[in-house]
Specification:
The chain is of the alpha/beta class. It has 2 domains: about 220 residues, 3-Layer(aba) Sandwich (Rossmann fold); about 80 residues, UDP-galactose 4-epimerase, domain 1. Helix content is about 40%, strand content about 20%. It is built from 12 helices and 14 strands. A 7-stranded parallel beta sheet has the order 3-2-1-4-5-6-11, with helices on both faces. The relative contact order is 0.13. The model has no long low-confidence stretch (mean pLDDT about 95).
Length: about 325
């Protein structure tokens, strides 16, 4: 029997992790969300209806809220955060406040948990962006790559800074208070229920609305390594529970699925059964030419290898999105 707390449990990755964990009757799961981005849709409701799942609407930037939580959790998945380029550019204060304060308060709370086996902290591939811009990085990128901040005055910097700060909390609170943790850096996770402000769902809409027409594609030669949500969830749960990943930073992604954006768009059109012509636009300023994680560490420590190829993942994703493209949300 394991008691599990998931912050940000109504979000894309949070709901998927809750769904996977709740399939075991030996797990009791409490999810916390304030619905700043997450939504109670049919998918989330089907998880909330499970007898071993409890939902609490709460604010993880409120110290008093943590006083209301039980202290019997074995595992904590900390996924609550303000993310997304639009939020980062328009609400950098919220990015700094929510991402920093929620993590500080969580680790203060964790000091009181006698049975805690692990905190999983969700970080990001964006954390490598400053190093890439100023010095260049190894691609595929290992977790050992040195981290560099970009322009400290830029709103865009707030997200990477907040995640660096969170990682530092993990290591320093972990060492001082014997709090077990694992950090994961997610790389281009995609799948059902990820919202609409991402390249894949945006292309679903563009291709549907322009069948047989020209589709504009910026940064067509730039590459990304896409990881399907099921693989991301399985690997996240594995590293959270695995003895060898305590105190480690782990890239979560699919190194074998790196693809140029122009080829990604063609593959999306293929799974949609559509015919398109590409209009290749100039590169987006600031967009890295390549982003791909080195995933050898997770394979060495746990043996995990992603199973879902890009075309299969896109097909599963489109099957979910096909009748929802007119009900767009963040």
């Amino acid at each position: 029997m394991a008691s599990i707390l998931i912050t940000g449990g109504a979000g894309f990755i949070g709901q998927a992790i809750t769904r996977a964990l709740s399939e075991s009757p030996s797990h009791t799961i409490t999810i916390v969300d304030n619905f700043a981005r997450g939504r109670i849709d049919a998918d989330l409701q089907s998880v909330l209806d499970r007898p071993n799942v409890t939902f609490i609407q709460g604010d993880v930037t409120d110290a008093a809220f943590f006083e209301t939580l039980p202290t019997n959790f074995d595992y904590i998945y900390h996924l609550a955060a303000v993310i997304g380029v639009r939020n980062v550019m328009e609400k950098p204060d919220k990015v700094l406040y929510v991402n920093a304060i929620s993590t500080l308060l969580l680790f203060e709370y964790a000091k009181r948990l006698p049975n805690l086996k692990r905190i999983l902290f969700s970080s990001t591939s964006e954390i490598y962006a400053g190093t890439l811009k100023h010095f260049g990085i190894t691609v595929p990128t290992p977790e050992t790559e040195p981290l560099t901040l970009d322009d400290i005055s830029s709103p865009r910097t707030t997200y990477m800074l907040s995640k660096m700060y969170g990682e530092s909390i993990c290591f320093n609170y972990g060492r001082l208070y014997n709090i077990p943790f694992t950090i994961v850096r997610y790389h281009n996770v995609y799948g059902p229920r990820m919202g609409f402000l991402h390249v894949v769902p945006e292309m679903f809409i563009k291709i549907r609305d322009n069948d047989g027409s020209t589709i504009d594609v910026a940064s067509p030669s730039h590459t990304r390594a896409f990881c399907y949500i099921d693989d991301a969830v399985q690997s996240t749960i594995l590293v959270t529970e695995h003895e060898q990943t305590q105190g480690e930073i782990i890239n979560i992604g699919n190194q074998e699925q790196e693809i140029a954006i122009c080829d990604l768009v063609k593959t999306i059109a293929k799974v949609m059964g559509k015919t398109i012509t590409l209009n290749q636009l100039p590169d987006t300023p600031g967009s890295p030419a390549r982003r791909c994680p080195d995933t050898s560490k997770i394979k060495t420590l746990t043996g995990f290898v992603p199973k879902i190829g890009l075309e299969e993942g896109l097909s599963r994703m489109y099957a979910w999105y096909a009748d929802k493209l007119d009900s767009r949300h963040e």
